[in-house]
Amino acid sequence: MNPILEVRGVSKRFGGLVAVSDVSFTIAEGEILGLIGPNGAGKTTLFNVVNGVYKADQGSITFAGKDITRCSPDQVVHLGLARTHQIVKPLNDLTLLDNVTVGACFGREYLDMAAARKVASEVLQQVGLGDRANLPARSLTIAGKKRLEVARALAAKPKLLLLDEVLAGLNPTEVATMIELVRKIRDSGIAVLMIEHLMQAIMSLSDRIVVLNLGRKLAEGQPDEVVHNSDVVEAYLGFSDIVNKLTRAE
Fold it and tell me: CA 20 to 30 Å from 9, out of 3, 118, 153, 175?
């Protein structure tokens, strides 16, 4: 499959701190790529570089055949790259429908208000919030707010969706529901790049895994390759427990 995203030799510094160093990877159309690593590994910084919040100090980023290395976040989303945030911040006093309409208005297709509300309604149904469309966002649980965050990103009609810890803070039932939603998103033709700390979840979801440590790419491969990589086990605190569990499951 053709790559929808190509990250080549990307580095990002903050003063003397090198947060991301010479990282390269690609994502194919319709692929789920997991991005994992210890806290402070540079995962969210890399997300912010890809979607234009930060500008790379070195390297290049190509999305859908276009160089987006110097693009702003609004330019990136208009090209078809949307994201969620680890700390969800819905517009609490607005309804769910209004929240998602905002995402549709400022998404890839420059929709007018009527068309944006239609898309928002459809997306709310897709994520399981259709029956709450007219409730204020503040009425949602953390799991509901996570789904609302995904809905707002989906309403932008992305070709690639960046998910930043959408499973964090969810109970096992809620995790299973979100995993199924991510699979449906991929099955609809949208590629997914996701950061996640729930190892068994990310290993079951991802087609491939990229591991960061101290800002550098430590490993890349299919989940079963990565989980048995000795460098990954050594670098990732607590990762050996996951390895043992997955090994026993084999």
Answer: 153
CA dihedral sign of residues 193, 214, 18, 11: negative
What token pair was written down for 151?
Answer: 């809905």
pLDDT digits (tens, 9 = 90+) for 108-153: 988 999 999 999 999 999 999 999 999 999 999 999 999 999 999 9
Q: Which of 53, 83, 110, 73 is nearest to 190 (CA)?
A: 83
Report d(CA 133, CA 206) in Å as an integer.
31
Cα–Cα distance for residue pair 36/198, rounded to 1 Å: 9
Residue 25 CB partners (closer than 8 Å, separation 6+): 7, 33, 210, 217, 220
Q: Give the start-end residues of each E strand in 29-182.
A: 32-36, 58-63, 66-67, 81-83, 160-164
In this predicted structure, what is the pLDDT of residue 247? 46
Summarize pLDDT for 149-176 with one digit per residue, the tens: 999 999 999 999 999 999 999 999 999 9
Q: What is residue 182's three-state secondary structure? A: helix
Q: What is the pLDDT of residue 2?
A: 82
Q: Which helix (H) or strand (E) holds 175?
A: helix 172-187
Structure letter (DSSP) for residue 130: G
Is pLDDT above 90 for 239?
A: no
Task: Annotate 43-64 with b (16+ C-beta within 10 A) or e (fewer).
Answer: bbbbbbbbbbebebeebebbbb
pLDDT, position 199: 86
Distance, CA of 43 to CA of 46 (rounded, Å): 5
Q: How far is CA 212 from CA 38, 44, 95, in A?
A: 8, 11, 38
